[in-house]
Every structure is written in C-alpha cells, then in structure tokens.
C-alpha cells in the first residue's frame, strides 16, 4: 500500500510514475490508463497494481527506459551475497566475544569488550568505509577498493551470485577468479559487519548471562561437571537459540548499512542502484526498489522464525504433546 501510494506523492502524472514511459503519446496514455485501471476508483487501481506486481511487471525505469524487473534480477543477488557474508562475519565474531564477556562478567575482559563494541557501534559507516579504503587499499594495497571482481575475468551471468557463477563456469581461471571475488568482498562486508557485530556482542552476552543463572546450570555444577563441559554442552546451545530470534531484526539494519556501503565501494547492488535512482528522480525505480527490499527483509524474517522454531521445541507450542 505504501509503495502504491508513492505514485500519488511523487510530482508529475500518476500514470508516468507507475509506468516510467516519459514520452508516451496520447493513445499510449489512454492505453496505460486502461492498463492500470485509472479510469476506475482507487480500490480497483490498487488491485490492478497488485496484479501487475505479482506478475513481475514493475514498470520501466525513467532513467534507462528498461524493465525494472530485469534490473532487479541482475542487481539483487549482489546485495544478497554481500549482506549474507557480512551477517556471517558479524555472527562469527560477535557471538563468541559476547560469550567471553558473559563468562568474564564484571571483569576487565567484559569491560574491554563492551567498550570496544560501543566504539564500533558509534562509528559512522560512511567514514569507516572511506577509512578502510584509505588504509587497506591505498596505503597497504592488500585489498581492492571497488567492484565485485576484476575486469580481467569474464564470468557468465547464471544465478547472479558471483561465487556460484564462478564455480559453475568452465573458465580455466576459475580458482583465480574465485580468489579475486573473495578479495573484493572482504572489505565492504567487514565494514557492513561492524555495527551488527557490536549488537551481537550485547545480545549473546545477555543471553549467556541469563542461561548461566538458570537452575539446570546450577544442577550441572552440583553434579560435578567441569566449567568447560557446562559452557560447551549446555550453556552455549541454549544461548544460541535466544540469539537466533534476533537475527531477522538485525538484518533490516544490515541492509540499510549495505546501501551506503555499496555506494562507497562501487558495489553493483540494488542499494547503490536505489540511491542513484533517488538522485536521478527515477520514481518508478524508487517505488519498485523499496518494494523488493521490503519483501527480501520480510522473507528473511520468516526464515529466521522457521529456524528458531526448528531449534527450540518450546517455540512449537503444544502441537507435539508433552
């Protein structure tokens, strides 16, 4: 509904904002009015818009005059790939640090980890991205500063996911291309992962502290289990279940950070395309881009809930009995 209402809020004609056809003739405008049901009431217009969206018809880009659905199919996998890698980095670093902080609760280690996480959360992503390029790319020359892969490698577009397309290709330089793609994704993914890492530190710390205070942990101690057995066999897996339910919530924040990072690192994803569309006043692309990103985040939330229910029997309710 919000995406549909944007066509009425943008300046200009509603039909042009929906279709993207800037130079349509009077006969084409008449056909578009009938196509989008603009001769009828607002409810029928909304139903027609839903029908077009479900059929994959997102209109034409005002800037390129190409179908937006084709552009999104090419660009969305790049954003998904970058976001998933950044999320994995954030979880791989943030969760263990949070567990260590909880185990060393109210000690120097705990205070240092919390201080560093607060500092990392406070750094603006656009400044951190430029600093990373200046230090790791220009200064040390360790990592590339832009793009997904070097222009020397020609990888055929199959799925849109760079690593999968490289593995599916018949290129004799497949493994060199894979290393090059990995080098390109490390820097932007790490920049995106900084803020979610600090949040995972706090979430995992709170979850572990809560688990260590439960009665079954005290019972395990009274049975004579060692501290390492209690942590790795009982506390860690129960704390992880509490963290998984928050992954979907953090993913929306991660996508927002990724949009800014894509511009800084010239990453050819949907976030960079959407920001460029805002500068170009490409209203059709803005409308469709927001809709696609929202659906992507929504799907991640659903998958997270399924994973949480699969790992936590208590979340499945009384369906399976006692």
Automatic annotation (TrEMBL):
Presence of the UniProt keyword Membrane in the record: yes
Entries under SUPFAM superfamilies matching the protein: MetI-like
InterPro entries, per the entry: MetI-like, MetI-like_sf
Segments forming domain ABC transmembrane type-1: 76-304
Membrane topology: Multi-pass membrane protein
Transmembrane segments: 82-103, 123-143, 181-201, 251-270, 290-311
This protein's UniProt keywords: Cell membrane, Membrane, Transmembrane, Transmembrane helix, Transport
Subcellular location: Cell membrane
Alphabetical list of PANTHER family matching this protein: DIPEPTIDE TRANSPORT SYSTEM PERMEASE PROTEIN DPPB-RELATED (PTHR43163:SF6)
Family listed: Belongs to the binding-protein-dependent transport system permease family. OppBC subfamily.
Protein name: ABC transporter permease
Record organism: Colwellia asteriadis
